[in-house]
Amino acid sequence: METNSPLGDATLAADLLDDYDADPAPVDDGTLPPDRFLDREISWLAFNQRVLELAEDPALPLLERANFLAIFASNLDEFFMVRVAGLKRRIDTGLAVPTNVGRAPLDVLSDISERAHELQARHARAFNELVKPALDEAGIRVETWAALDEADREVLHETFQNQIFPVLMPLAVDPAHPFPYISGLSLNLSIRVRNPKTDKVEFARLKVPTNLPRFVQLPNSQAQLRYIPLEDLIANHLGELFPGMEVLEHHEFRVTRNEDVVIEEDETENLLQALEKELLRRRFGSPIRLEITDDMDEVTLGLLMQELRITDREVYRLPAPLDLGGLFEVSRLDRPELKYPRRVPTTSVYLQPTEPTERPDIFASISKGDILLHHPYESFATSVQTFLEQAAADPNVLAIKQTLYRTSGDSPIVEALIDAAEAGKAVLALVEIKARFDEQANISWARKLEKAGVHVVYGLVGLKTHCKLALVVRQEGGTLTHYSHIGTGNYNPKTSRLYEDLGLLTADDTVGKDLTRLFNELSGYAIEKKFKRLLVAPLHLRAGLLKRIDAEAEAARAGKPSGIRIKVNSMVDEAIIDALYRASQAGVPVDVLVRGICSLRPGVPGLSENIRVRSILGRYLEHSRIFSFHNDGDPQVYIGSADMMHRNLDRRVEALVRLVKPEHLTEIQQLLDLGMDDETSSWHLEPEGVWVRHDRDAAGVPLRDAQDERWRQVSSRRRGAR
Q: Which family does the UniProt entry place this protein in (predicted)?
């Protein structure tokens, strides 16, 4: 499900979607109101609504709006496959479903259904009434068969015969042919035909091929690009699939299945084999959503509901076309004037040689002092990727250790590790094969690495390893020097061009020793509890943050300056939220930048009037995590991989690193200032849980785009700066 969009990548929803297993119920000590949390499911749907609002925005480039429509569809698919599926699984099996708002699970499911129905209808309207007419006007026409003339139909008939018909597989349903398995997220045609000889009506299902383009191109007319949905073309040639039969009805439908993976790690001897078996079972998960075109007859709908065991609440009636995720194809069209302006990342000025003719030496650059990277404004390829490639080729490098959570299909990172192993270096790769929806790809990479002689491990039983770490051990003048990278994003060169992330390159010996101890814990049986510049989950990260939040509250009570600023993808953890509430009650100003889910209620008198929550969505996916504390004028600032969710703090290995260079602390504060500024375009979270977009001032003038401003800031830096 790889796309050309940061928000539409298959990792996005997985990044934001916690699961229900082992989620702790909120701790209520009686001092805070019971309704202090916003429902996380509804908050996730509100996040996807913000994505939809971008698609509806006429100020955005047209093909980007089409892209956001596809992103919305892809996100919602994964929400159903993971979060709704997990909720239904626990309800069906009678397991407890703790919710952070204390409501009955069936009520939660009902609210999800109501909101999802509203959003899917709005999504369809956005395409049919806003984006499609604009595409038509721009010369990109998505036609229907009914609107075509005879000449076009003749061309498409030939296309159907030569390129489509041989691939199709109609499946009859009768006593000799049981109702077929409907694969998850596949687009299908339900067909009712009548035998003119017996007058008997039969049912058939036809899967729309996924290995053909979703939109079939028509001959260009007057410099216009014209397309017809593949399913529309097939539907109007059903007579050739059922010769001699009379086609009575045909309708589109689509099924979403439970595709979450559940493995009892404590009960398996081989995690790799157990995961592979579970991935095979994933295909046959129970149906949890049925999307149908709004013209489907009741007889066909009744049959589908009966065979799929779907309830009325799980049926979504929508206008054709279904599965607007297919618009990713349209968004890739080569029409630069309808897209965001092209931008080329710069190489960090701290990694550029003083003289342009000099050859970059990344180890020499890092040895001069910590380097803070900001992607995609600064190039991943000329920083992190080059760091690992030079390490692989450097004869003085003795060892490389790295975590791999998600990476691209042709990853130069993986190739660098292979090259290093083949060159005789000691290489350790911790591959997280349980990264949701990337499991199969990671299994493949793990085996490729093992064949090359890389030591591959899969982390700790019961925990996912989500931290982004790389450690290079280099021999310099008879001593060993540690070069480290700690980031907020994956080692993925493709998504690094689309995800906003931070990373630290350092030769600091304290960080190097911290990472050495952490890698020993991940690959062996070491139990290390002491880290100096790191906060590590699951044992100490939440406790470390709570300690720092409480310290700010104590400072405020003592009349001293205080402040907390956090930037995350999700803010769900009740213990962290309650600590922020108490800090607010003590008078601490709290700023939270959150991309996705937020269960915190800001601006509630007596509870959170000192808390502000903002959200920024745009061209790039805001993915970095930052934790900043005033600390009596000596700021403590951390960056890393952890969101404020139960899974990150309790069921994952996460790591935050403390920044120490004054200029880095200043840069982070400027970054947070930009995101929280009222002159910056963003969404503001209201106390009742409604997100309100603020993108224009009182005079109607567009507010500043944070990502555009960041590009200007980074590109203005000069070579040789330090």
A: Belongs to the polyphosphate kinase 1 (PPK1) family.
- So what's the pLDDT on residue 600? 97
The residues pairing with 204 across neighbouring beta strands, listed in sequence order, are: 172, 191
Tell me: is residue 181 an annotated ligand-binding position: no
Determine if residue 623 is labeled as part of a ligand binding site: yes
Contact 393, 424 (CB under 8 A): no
Per-state percent for the chain, helix, strand, coil, to nearest 5: 40, 25, 35
Bridge-based pairing of strands 215-221 and 224-229 is antiparallel
The Cβ of residue 615 has, within 10 Å, a number of other Cβ atoms equal to 21
β-strand partners of 628:
565, 637
Other Cβ atoms less than 10 A from the Cβ of 443: the count is 18
Distance, in Å, from the CA atom of 234 to the CA atom of 164, rounded to the nearest integer, reads 8
Q: How far apart are CA 418 and CA 406, in angstroms?
A: 17
Give residue 358's pLDDT: 79
User: Rounded to an integer, what distance in angstroms lies between the CA atom of residue 492 and that of residue 412?
Assistant: 9
Is 595 annotated as a binding-site member? yes
Which neighbouring-strand residues pair with 293? 318
What is the bridge-based pairing of β-strands 397-404 and 426-431? Answer: parallel
610 marked ligand binding residue: no
User: Per residue in 112-163, pLDDT tens?
Assistant: 999 999 999 999 999 999 999 999 999 999 999 999 999 999 999 999 999 9
Give the CA angle between residues 134, 140, 144 to the nearest 5°: 95
Query: What is the DSSP code (8-state) at residue 642?
Result: -
**What is the 8-class DSSP label of residue 702?**
B
- CB-based contacts of 478, cutoff 8 Å, min separation 6: none
**Which residues, at least 6 apart from 390, have a Cβ–Cβ distance to it below 8 Å?**
362, 363
Tokens of 369: 């002092």
- Determine whether 466 is an active site residue: yes
Report, as an integer, the average pLDDT of 284-312.
91
* Structure tokens belonging to residue 23: 């989620």
Beta bridge partners of 485: 470, 505
- Cβ atoms within 10 Å, residue 339: 18
Which is the catalytic residue, given 466, 485, 630, 646?
A: 466
Q: Which of these, 320, 315, 311, 307, lies nearest to 203 by C-alpha position?
A: 307
Helices 62-79 and 40-56 sit at what angle, rounded to 10 degrees?
Answer: 160
Name which of 144, 157, 251 is nearest 206 in CA terms: 251
- 45 vs 698: CA distance, rounded Å: 29
CA 56 – CA 50 distance, rounded (Å):
10
Whether the per-residue pLDDT at 81 is higher than 70: the answer is yes
With cut-offs at 50, 70 and 90, classify the pLDDT of residue 17: low
DSSP type of residue 265: G
**In 10 A of CB 145, how many CB atoms?**
15
What distance in Å separates the CA atoms of residue 50 and residue 271, rounded to the nearest whole number? 38
Q: Examine the pLDDT at 267 and tell me if it is beyond 50.
A: no
How many Cβ atoms from other residues are within 10 Å of residue 472's Cβ? Answer: 29
Instruction: Name the packing angle between helices 62-79 and 105-125 (round to 10°).
Output: 160
Distance (Å, rounded) from C-alpha 721 to C-alpha 265? Answer: 50
Smallest CA-to-CA distance from 648 within 478, 463, 521 is with: 463
Question: pTM for the complete prediction?
Answer: 0.90
Pairing of strands 625-629, 479-487: unpaired
Q: Which of 261-265, 370-374, 644-648 has the lowest mean pLDDT?
A: 261-265
Ligand-binding site membership of 258 (annotated):
no
Walk me through the domains of the chain, giving residue ranges and CATH numbers.
11-338 (3.30.1840.10), 349-532 (3.30.870.10), 536-715 (3.30.870.10)
pLDDT tens figures, 677-707: 999 999 999 999 999 999 999 999 999 999 9
* Contact predicate 493/410, CB 8 Å: no
Q: Across all residues in the chain, what is the average pLDDT?
A: 88
CB-based contact 263:462 (threshold 8 Å): no
The more confidently predicted of residues 337 and 176 is: 337
